[in-house]
Design a protein that fits this description.
This protein is an alpha/beta fold. The protein contains 24 helices and 12 strands. Keywords: Membrane, Transmembrane, Transmembrane helix.
């Protein structure tokens, strides 16, 4: 036989060739499977990363929108008051967000190609403070023409609404670019369709609740405190919009708005230039702003009328008190408003079987204002404690008005303070078995912006004051409201539930028989007494007047209010901590009436320039 070829001799057996081919095929399939897995992993990571970036931008945009909404309503509060400024604010915000969310594609089609809507957000944000300033100030301002009922709506519709609508549209677009997350976290369709809208609204509301700027201005460093003021915060938000949005040359068009806010906007608190600008504008009318600060209760300032010789303390769109500068303080200043003098008549109430000597007496004053009543109590030699929530109000009263230093200042919420005192008194009662109270007199004088601070007129708070009052003690409560509305009936019903013996006096005689009847009322009550007739006043002595002409005229209450003077036909009930709706639902009308009164007391120009 011929020899076999070498290749044939060296060739592997058929079965060996088959096994090697199978092994190679399996390795190839494993490699393909591994590559596919790595590709899927990489794709999944890219989807998650892309979605995280998109959702991060969404949260930032919604946070900026919420902060802008808070800053807008805060900027309008000094001109219109906090309640009128916020009356339609929620409805306008909700409608702006819905409009932007539902029409993002239509808005984008209106723009030139390659111009995403996001690049216009910094422009819209930058011009908000400038346009609001122009619309709310000046002789033909929206404030004067539309008043507090519609003025805030018009201004925010022209400034805040476009910003929020554009932001919501950008958020909707971001959600569309982040739809790949469904590949990572699959959801039922009905949840996936509803979740973006519901989640966006939840994030917005959460951000809205934590971006209230004025709450942190007192404890923050100076730079941070300035950035959290009304106008400065709006400028900071415009800058933040620039960072979040895509870079664009359009940003240069925001420079005029920023320069206007820095150089021409007198509302920019904390700026000496803005304050000088403000005073130059007010000089022709004989007014000057001595000092101003944004604080936890609002915009607080000291303004003086140079031509007539008096100064007042302002908080947003209300006055906390005033005194004449053309008369010497001897020994106390002459107050501008007589209602604060009437509070001092708490000393004139006859107490059965008891004579309270000033040198032995103690007084608790809830709510400071400029300190008219506390200064008088200190001048009479009474040990006086003042509870004031706002440290800036106390600082300005001490620096620019004649609040004496020899008083005890408690700078905290009156509810928590009285809760603590009552708890301490209960411990003393358990130890000694005697409940004597702490104060001979209590003066309750809290009010701002056309509405009462509701927690300080509840049954529970008044019961605290009753417990802190000595058995022979007297309390005077100042309530400012409209006698034609239900809240004053509810408050008086609550007061009488704690203090059965009370008499009510108003600041001035009623001038009109129909329409609103907004006035300051002083309620005098005694702890020991069952009938209103138990309250009588002694005639003031010369020492009671403190050599003050205003006290000669206003110290003795004159114009008594009876139940028949409350004109509301709605049933009233006792105000409790968990049942305050009967007061809040009338706040808007009361605040509108208060706004009209304040515009008669101080010129519109002074309110608008703040």
């Amino acid at each position: 036989m011929p020899p076999k070829p070498a290749a044939a001799c060296n060739a592997p057996p058929v079965n060996a060739q088959s096994n090697d081919f199978t092994s190679t095929s399996q390795d190839f399939e494993r490699d393909l499977t591994s590559l596919a897995g790595r590709a899927r992993g990489a794709t999944r990571a890219r989807v998650v990363r892309r979605a995280a970036i998109a959702y991060g931008r969404i949260v930032l945009l919604l946070t900026l929108a919420a902060a802008s909404a808070n800053a807008s309503v805060a900027a309008l509060s000094p001109v219109f008051g906090a309640i009128p400024a916020g009356r339609w604010h929620f409805a306008l915000v909700a409608s702006a967000l819905f409009t932007g969310w539902s029409s993002n594609l239509h808005l984008q089609r209106l723009l030139p190609p390659h111009r995403p809507l996001a690049i216009f957000l910094p422009l819209l944000a930058a011009y908000v403070p400038a346009v609001q300033y122009v619309l709310s100030s000046g002789g033909a301002s929206i404030s004067t023409l539309a008043g507090p009922r519609w003025g805030p709506v018009v201004i925010e519709a022209l400034t805040l609404f476009p910003l929020l609508a554009a932001t919501a549209a950008c958020v909707a677009t971001e959600f569309e670019s982040a739809t790949g997350i469904d590949e990572v976290v699959p959801l039922p369709r009905w949840i996936g369709d509803a979740l973006p809208g519901i989640g966006s609204w939840a994030v917005f509301r959460l951000a809205e609740s934590v971006t209230v700027f004025t709450e942190i201005t007192l404890s923050a460093p100076k730079v941070v405190a300035w950035l959290t003021t009304r106008v400065a915060s709006q400028l900071a938000l415009a800058t933040a919009y620039c960072i979040v949005s895509r870079p664009s040359r359009l940003w240069m068009y925001a420079v005029p708005a920023i320069l206007h806010a820095m150089l021409l906007n007198s509302h920019l608190a904390g700026s000496p230039w803005a304050l000088a600008l403000n005073n130059r504008a007010l000089q022709s009318d004989g007014w000057v702003v001595l000092d101003r600060r944004e604080s936890i209760t609002g915009y607080v300032s000291v303004i003086e009328n140079l031509s007539q010789g008096f100064r007042v303390l302002r908080c947003d769109h209300s006055l906390l008190g005033g005194e004449w500068t053309r008369f010497p303080a001897n020994p106390v200043a002459e107050p501008v408003y007589g209602v604060f003098v009437m509070l001092e008549a708490v000393r004139l109430v006859n107490v059965p079987d008891k004579t309270i000597r000033d040198a032995d007496a103690s007084c608790l004053v809830v709510g400071l204002g400029i300190g008219t009543a506390p200064a008088a109590f200190v001048a009479h030699g009474i040990d006086t404690t003042v509870v004031e929530l706002d440290p800036v109000v106390h600082e300005f009263a001490s620096r620019y008005f004649h609040l004496p230093a020899n008083h005890k200042a408690v700078l905290e919420d009156a509810v928590s303070y009285t809760d603590r005192l009552v708890a301490e008194q209960s411990v003393d009662l358990n130890r000694s078995g005697l409940a004597t109270g702490r104060f001979d007199y209590i003066v309750h004088d809290v009010f701002t912006g056309g509405a009462e601070p509701i927690p300080l007129f509840t049954l529970e708070f008044l019961q605290n004051l009753h417990a802190l009052l000595k058995p022979s003690g007297v309390i005077a409560i100042n309530y400012a409201g409209d006698l034609a509305l239900t809240p004053i009936k509810a408050v008086m019903l609550t007061i009488r539930a704690v203090f059965p013996a009370c008499r009510i006096f108003r600041e001035h005689e009623r001038r009109n028989s129909d329409g609103p009847d907004f006035t300051n009322c002083i309620v005098f009550c005694i702890k020991q007494g069952k009938r209103d007739a138990d309250i009588t006043f002694r005639a003031p002595l010369e020492a009671d007047l403190l050599r003050s002409n205003v006290r000669k005229q206003f110290l003795m209450p004159k114009y008594e209010v009876f139940d028949a003077d409350f004109r509301s036909t709605e049933d009233a009930r006792i105000v409790r901590r968990n049942d305050t709706a009967q007061l809040t639902k009338h706040h808007a009308e009361s605040a509108l009436g208060h706004w009209a009164v304040m515009r008669q007391v101080v010129p519109a120009k002074v309110w608008e320039l703040w």
